[in-house]
Specification:
The protein is an alpha/beta fold. It has a domain of about 60 residues. About 35% of the residues lie in helices and about 25% in strands. It has a six-stranded mixed β-sheet with strand order 6-7-8-3-9-10, sandwiched between helices. A four-stranded antiparallel β-sheet has the order 2-1-4-5, with helices on one face. β1 and β2 form a beta hairpin. α4 packs across α5 and α5 packs parallel to α6. The longest helix is centred in the last third of the chain and has 18 residues.
Length: about 260
């Protein structure tokens, strides 16, 4: 398998001396091409800090983040901007769509910013619209859409440049159960059929059960890892294993997730 992401001894500290907070304290893992990886942990565990470091939104204190053997921590600002635009897609919890643009215009915005072929973009848009069931709403504005539709538009935007990896930050967090289920199933379909690499932070064990592997973070460190055995384990069985793991990270209180 081809390794897409390599994280080595990643640390992110805030403050100094007695006021030092170790948001990340030596996180290491790899992600292979085509993985659907979940990151779970209780509130304050470091999972969102990890995602923001990987997406270069914040700079780590120490450690290595390699995308296809390129160390992001050593890139200059202009190179980081290029990386953010072309190598990753980012799916936010709160959609982050522009209200004055149609769905199609929102999706194609990265194309215009990074000067990609319009013809290729239209082909890609048609494919993603089919996957995500949004073909009928491409001419609508965000205010004319449901929350689930807005998040599927945001997912198409994150995928339009066919990035090496998509970072998803609680993508179902702002959705009701029906729309959350629809979105996570669509992401799983794209992962399977397009071999898309997705790294998703989530507190939701149902969403996590669609992943192929889960890393659990506690106190800024990876404390546990579980992997779904697709040949012998149902999604329901994997979901139950996730549920069984959650109290170990929160002292028995699942509500802390």
């Amino acid at each position: 398998m081809e390794r897409i992401l390599n994280v080595k001894d990643l640390k992110k500290y805030y403050g100094k001396n007695t006021n030092l907070t170790k948001a990340l304290d030596g996180v290491s893992f790899e992600v292979e091409k085509g993985e659907f990886l979940g990151i779970m942990g209780s509130s304050g565990s470091g999972k969102t800090t990890l995602l923001n470091c990987l997406a270069t939104i914040i700079k780590p204190t120490e450690g290595v983040i390699e995308i296809k053997n390129k160390d992001l921590t050593k890139l200059k600002s202009s190179e980081l901007s290029e990386y953010r635009g072309k190598e990753i897609g980012y799916l936010f919890q709160n959609f982050e769509l522009l209200d004055n643009l149609t769905a199609e215009e929102n999706i194609l915005l990265p194309i215009s910013l990074h000067k990609k072929s319009d013809l290729d973009a239209k082909r890609r848009l048609k494919l993603l619209a089919s996957y995500l069931d949004i073909s009928e709403i491409l001419n609508k504005f965000p205010s004319q859409m449901s929350g689930g539709q807005r998040q599927r538009i945001a997912a198409a935007r994150a995928l339009i440049l066919d990035p090496e990896i998509v970072f998803a930050d609680e993508p179902t967090g702002a959705l009701d159960s029906k729309n959350a289920d629809m979105l996570i199933r669509k992401l799983a379909q794209i992962n399977e059929e397009e071999n898309a690499t997705i790294l998703m932070v989530t507190h939701d064990p149902i969403a996590a059960s669609f992943c192929k592997r889960i890393l659990f973070i506690k106190d800024g460190k990876i404390s546990h890892e579980i992997k779904r055995n697709n040949s012998s384990e149902t999604q329901e069985d994997f979901y139950q294993r996730i549920l069984n793991m959650m109290p170990k990270l929160t002292g028995g209180n699942k509500n802390d997730f």
